[in-house]
Specification:
Elements (H helix, E strand, L loop, with lengths): L3 E5 L5 E6 H7 L3 E9 L5 E6 L10 E3 L1 E3 L7 H13 L6 E13 L2 E13 L11 E7 L1 H10 L6 H13 L1
Parallel strand pairs: 3-8
Antiparallel strand pairs: 1-2, 3-6, 4-5, 4-9, 7-8
């Protein structure tokens, strides 16, 4: 099934739809969301992307990143993808939004108006293995050290979003 992203201008005015991979080839601005989940110790949940993903396979990233559908709010899209990828329901709150553009390799670009959500979760996951290879919690200090020592193990957009997240908190 083809997936589409919602193309927008910087003010989030809808310009149209485009097939997801084509939008990533063209580097066109589109709607997206990112979810950061933490446990009660303040450790961040990371997911390792599944090996079958068409870009950035087997790289670590934040809990969930994806795109809302045309008639879907950012929050509804985020909750949908958390359920589809991690198999959980969790309360999310929106913290900020920003625009970024990142080269993700193989001629693909992420150019997104990204809404960032945060939640707390401390239970079992039911991972969708087509999406997620594995998950782990990590302290932010250990995460910073790992990114500094092995940046190639992390998605390009996660490194950008994480820095933006730190500016807000």
């Amino acid at each position: 099934m083809e997936e589409f992203v919602v193309l927008v201008n910087p003010e989030d005015k809808v310009l149209g739809l485009m097939e997801k991979q084509q939008a990533h080839i063209n580097g066109l601005l589109h709607r997206a969301f990112s979810v950061f989940l933490f446990n009660t110790k303040g450790e961040m949940l990371l997911q390792k992307r599944a090996s079958e993903k068409y870009h950035s396979p087997l790289k670590w990233t934040n809990a969930v990143c994806s795109h809302p559908r045309i008639e879907e709010t950012y929050l509804k899209g985020a909750k949908r993808r958390v359920k589809e990828e991690l198999g959980i329901d969790v309360e999310l709150s929106e913290k900020f939004d920003f625009i970024y553009k990142a080269d993700v390799g193989n001629g693909l670009w992420e150019h997104e108006l990204d809404h960032v959500f945060v939640g707390i979760f401390e239970d079992d996951f039911d991972l969708n293995k087509d999406e997620v290879e594995e998950v782990k919690y990590i302290s932010v200090d250990d995460l910073d050290r790992e990114i500094h020592e092995n940046p190639e193990n992390f998605t390009e957009w996660f490194k950008i979003i994480l820095e933006e997240y730190k500016h807000h908190f």
